[in-house]
TrEMBL record:
It comes from Venenivibrio stagnispumantis. Pfam families: DUF2628 (PF10947). Keywords: Membrane, Transmembrane, Transmembrane helix. The chain crosses the membrane at residues 53-70, 76-97, 129-150. The lineage of its organism: Bacteria, Pseudomonadati, Aquificota, Aquificia, Aquificales. This is DUF2628 domain-containing protein.
């Protein structure tokens, strides 16, 4: 499994595996990840956790709509964003571990040949800066339209 983890994670595999080993030894789901804290949804997209990144984007857009409709004070919006970022920082490594294990298990069940397993793990894993950029651009465009609609069109 350790070999598969290295192949799947790719860049910074040693960092993640050492974090995961501590988490499993202590039974904790909490392990700090600065990249997940600062980049949130973009980090999930960068690590190819697309379904999670899409759910986060949908949640953040829904939250923005609610905050705009309720005319939420900027301090509350900022505190909410900080709270969400702390959650990503605390649980990002756990979510990533769960994602990686499930993906590897799925690949092993689908492909009987070891060479195919390794090829698929390599293809499904790793990172994608393009995905992170695309998610960021889509998010900026959507939130820009939403903000414009609520501040200009409805007023």
């Amino acid at each position: 499994m350790d070999r598969y983890l290295h192949i799947f994670v790719g860049k910074n595999a040693d960092y993640y595996i050492s974090k995961w080993e501590v988490m499993e030894a202590t039974g904790s789901k909490i392990s700090w990840n600065w990249a997940a804290f600062f980049f949130g949804m973009l980090w999930f997209a960068y690590r190819k956790m697309y379904s999670i990144a899409i759910m986060i984007m949908a949640f953040l857009i829904l939250l923005q709509i609610i905050q705009l409709k309720m005319n939420t004070p900027p301090l509350i919006v900022a505190l909410t964003n900080i709270f969400i970022s702390i959650g990503f920082g605390m649980f990002g490594n756990y979510i990533y571990l769960d994602f990686v294990k499930n993906k590897i298990k799925e690949i092993k069940e689908k492909y009987p040949d070891e060479n195919l397993i390794i090829a698929e793990i390599g293809r499904n894993g790793g990172t994608s800066i393009i995905s992170a950029i695309m998610f960021g651009l889509i998010y900026l465009i959507l939130t820009g339209f939403i903000d414009y609609y609520f501040t200009e069109v409805l007023n």
